[in-house]
Amino acid sequence: MRFFATKTSRVTFGLTRVICIGVFFLWIVCYTHPVSAQTKRHAVPKSHPRLLGSRLRLQKLAEQRPEAYQRVVRVARELDAEDHSKMISTALVCAIEQDEQLGKRAVQMAMKYINGPIRKGHTPFAHDLARCAIVYDLCHEYWSQSERAKFHAYLNKTVDANIRSETHVFHNGWYGYKNWGIGLACYATFYENKRAEEILKNLEQECRSRAAPALKLAGAGGGWAEGYYINYWLYEWLFFCEVARYCEGLDYYAMAPGFFNNRAIASMFEAYPGIKIYNSRRPIPMGDGGGRVFGGDRDKTLSARRILVNHFHDDSSHQAVHAFNETTPRSSVGVYAYKDFLWRDTTVKKADLNGFKLSHISPGPGYVYARSSWNEDATYFFFKCGDRFTAHQHLDVGHFLIYKHEELIGDGGHYDAFGSNHDVNYHLRTIAHNTILVYDPCETWSRIRAGPVSGNDGGQLHSWPHHNGAVSDAAEWQRGRQLYDIADILAFEDKGDYVYVAGDCTRSYSPKKLEYFTRQIVFLRPGTFVIFDRVGSKNPRFKKTWLLQAMKVPTETEDGLVITNGKGRLFIQTSLPPDPDVKLVTGAELYSYGGKTYPPKRDTGPAPQCRIEITPARQKAVDHFLHVLTATDAAVASMEKAIAQVKDQEVTVTVGEARITFTMAELGGRIELPGRRTRKDNTFKPAHPGQLH
């Protein structure tokens, strides 16, 4: 991705005594308190427990976090829970209270997996390994020699069976499906399983050589091109990273600081405003998944932020994230109490969240996030204009989201199944997103996710060598860069009263039909968005369509369309093209185009109920689209009309007291606000490389 703008004997005896005393106190610090971010690498302790620190440390935690610990005890001793939570909770209480009965019960649960079949492939075998490893370490004295030997064999066979499983480091499997469980099991069996050290060395080497470069490339700024799926799997990887620091002072975070130093911050911006069901925050939809309905992944996201906050606890930005985390202090799923016990550290200093920045950019995946405030009724905006890396991405360059109280502009379709007829012809296609279609009747698409592609939606290209559109690592991406480098964030700046972002979406479309497509967006806080698109096609007869996925069917007024969802409302005014054709696609026709219908097999939660299609009344080689969208409370009955004037290859739109001008022939423009003269820093234009931050 390219960025243009907008990281002697008596003395010896005394000296020896001093060194020994120092080492002893170092041991006390390392194994009774959280690992310092500056801890140096050391030998893996030979004693158990060690994955999460010493028994003394866990006992101290139980004293420091009594409320969370008592909830863990209740899960261990009383409540029904799925095996993962039950085994971890039982093992923790066993280690802290040295309860033989609980220890033996946990070992029995682990043996069910150890004596079962060896799982391999795209299945979370790592979770099986991880929960057994935690029981092995925390309840070590209650394992018989034969049971330990069986666990060693089970671990080694699982590793051997999955050497070729989940090898794509851009994909969710590398982090969550696979390596956290392998890593935990090897640290738990270190010194006892002869292969453990070698497996850990290979894991570290692969992370340094393949995973860390991927994080640097696709994760700069803390975002991740795979989008929503990082909510599922990053928590497990961070759990392993903490274990690696406890066991040998190995800092995986330092391998990709551009990602890990910003991940908690980006994660905070990847949640819609408002505290929802079970005191949880809903994640924004980004590619597959979507988090439309409540699930345990929301607690994983919270715990992942907590882990990073604890690690970077002296950093003021992470102290702001801590303040954000503390607005939802308990895991939403009751049996996840162990996550609160392990990771919620209330001793971290809280910064004033209201004084924290209101926008963030993750240039790796090409994500821009912005809010009107840190209040729970804030207006929220998300924009994506990034490159191609992996399978769970959609054909949605230039896509954006708007939220006020509820989703107003969302992500279309349903993730009913990977590669389903609906998935490959609607859900992941451009037509289900808030961007542009350019219809070439002769265009065809190769197979997508090995699914039955039959629809020509006029959207973005999918012609990568692998049908998933994925690459295995950063080296492969660089070798095929001309195929995967498909979009650029051209500018990003936050001036307080407004945010400006610009993107070049051109290369995400077939060069046979598109000359250029650039998108400029001005977010006038608190809730107005001015969106200007320049679209040039190779053939003037190719129909251009501006798309908007409305969460509710809009009402039509003299001044434009109005979407109302719960307490939120969005006013939509079209200034360009003049006299547009406006089509509202709803009901049975929503998942139809080109004479074919692609309905989902299942409902995955609240999805857009209407696709708004805006096209010029007469097709030309170059068309411009100018829209003003205003998010408000549903109680607002009307909106002041935006006035647009076209003169001398410029279009100026007046929104309230703000005047925004865009140049039509090239990317650029300026903004005039009350009390602020039009200065150089109010001019929209690409700047020098490296200025995105």
Question: What attributes characterize this protein structure?
Answer:
693 residues; Glycosyltransferase; Beta-galactosidase, Chain A, domain 5; 2 domains; five-stranded antiparallel β-sheet; 17 helices; 24 strands; 20% strand; disordered C terminus
Layout of SSEs?
Blueprint: H1 9-32, H2 55-64, H3 66-77, H4 83-97, H5 100-114, H6 125-138, H7 145-161, H8 172-189, H9 196-218, H10 230-248, H11 257-269, H12 297-311, H13 316-325, H14 337-343, E1 359-362, E2 367-371, E3 379-384, E4 400-404, E5 406-409, H15 421-427, E6 436-439, H16 474-479, H17 481-484, E7 488-494, E8 498-504, E9 514-524, E10 528-537, E11 543-550, E12 555-557, E13 560-565, E14 568-576, E15 581-586, E16 592-593, E17 596-597, E18 610-615, E19 622-633, E20 643-647, E21 650-655, E22 658-663, E23 669-672, E24 683-684
Antiparallel strand pairs: 1-2, 2-3, 3-4, 4-5, 6-11, 7-8, 8-9, 9-10, 10-19, 11-18, 12-13, 13-14, 14-19, 15-18, 16-17, 20-21, 21-22, 22-23, 23-24
Helix pairs in contact: 2-3, 2-4, 3-4, 3-14, 4-5, 4-6, 5-6, 6-7, 6-8, 8-9, 8-10, 10-12, 11-12, 12-13
Care to describe what's here?
- With 693 residues, this protein is an alpha+beta fold.
- The chain is built from 17 helices and 24 strands.
- The strands form five sheets. It has an eight-stranded antiparallel sheet with strand order 7-8-9-10-19-14-13-12, with no helix packed on it. A five-stranded antiparallel sheet has the order 1-2-3-4-5, covered by helices on one side. Strands 20-21-22-23-24 form a five-stranded antiparallel sheet, with no helix packed on it.
- Strand 20 (643-647) and strand 21 form a beta hairpin.
- The radius of gyration is 27 Å and the shape is globular.
